Each structure stands twice: as structure tokens, then as C-alpha cells.
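HUMAN: Spend a minute on the protein record below and explain its fold to me.
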Amino acid sequence: MEEIGDDPPDLVITDIRMPGMDGYELVRKLKERSPETPVLAISGYVSDADIVDYEFDAFLEKPMNPKEFS
């Protein structure tokens, strides 16, 4: 989170399961500092309720097809 500083990114794409800080904690901390930054989660383990409860703006389920970005 220190890397973000005063210049938040235009978009954050994150996995849910990561070492150190998981995607749920990341989106919570990011939205506290920069609520306008959209966060896209990529995981095989997230429910629709998680997307709403944790303020993800979009979700792609693994395995994902790169064509989903176009």
C-alpha cells in the first residue's frame, strides 16, 4: 500500500489468495485510501456475495480466458 502514495492507480487487478495480504484485505485498504479506484478480482474461490461485501468492482473466475478482457 505504501507504493500507491498520493497517486492511486487507474485500475487494480488482484488475485484473492496471495501470500502476505489477500485480495480481501487489499481491496479494503485500497478503498479506504482511494474509493474511486476500480478493483477487479481474479479467483476460482469467490462467491457473488464476496464481490458485493468486499467492494470488488468486477470479478473474473479462474481459469480465465484472456479474451474476456476485450
Summary: The domain at 12-64 is CATH 3.40.50.2300 (Rossmann fold). Residues 23-33 form the longest helix (11 residues). The CA atoms of residues 60 and 66 lie 10 Å apart. The helical segments are 23-33, 48-53.
